[in-house]
Design a protein that fits this description.
It is built from two helices and eight strands; from the N terminus they run E-E-H-E-E-E-E-H-E-E. With 140 residues, the protein is an alpha+beta fold. The chain binds zinc ion.
């Protein structure tokens, strides 16, 4: 791919994710090739946002730049029972708990690690029908 100027032209790869918030600790599903697919999935999960990723690639298909834009879904319904729940589990002693909100998981982990020296709590997101997925580096 060459531009008229003769320099290699970068091109864009665009994909969409469904996500539950714009927070750093958010659940994301995807990728989807079209906005419509991502939107359908977001509505199914009760998520209120779409995330549009743009990868700018060079001629070797290396990613040069990543841009992401959040879009709030118009008229998104906030569901009472979340499609996604958070599970904390101590890697050291195995004690675990379930949370609806990220901050609750963080408080649980803080208390557990305060009460039990050198224990390390891991966080997992559990989505309906999708199983558990560990969220790494969740406490910065
Ligand atoms: Zn523990």
């Amino acid at each position: 791919m060459q531009s008229p100027g003769g320099t290699a032209m970068a091109y864009k790869e665009i994909f969409w994710m469904a996500c539950d918030s714009t927070e750093q600790l958010r659940a994301e599903y995807g990728p989807f090739h079209t906005r419509a697919e991502a939107e359908a999935e977001a509505r199914k999960l009760g998520f209120s946002y779409l995330l549009r990723y743009e990868h700018l690639l060079d001629e070797n298909e290396e990613i040069q730049e990543v841009r992401c834009i959040f879009l709030e879904l118009p008229g998104a319904v906030v569901v009472e029972s979340p499609a996604l729940s958070l599970h904390t589990r101590c890697a050291t002693c195995g004690e675990s708990a379930t949370h609806d909100k990220a901050w609750q998981a963080e408080v649980w982990a803080d208390i557990h690690e305060f009460e039990h020296t050198r224990h390390r709590v891991r966080l997992f997101a559990h989505a309906r029908g999708k199983g558990l997925k560990e969220i790494g580096d969740w406490r910065g």
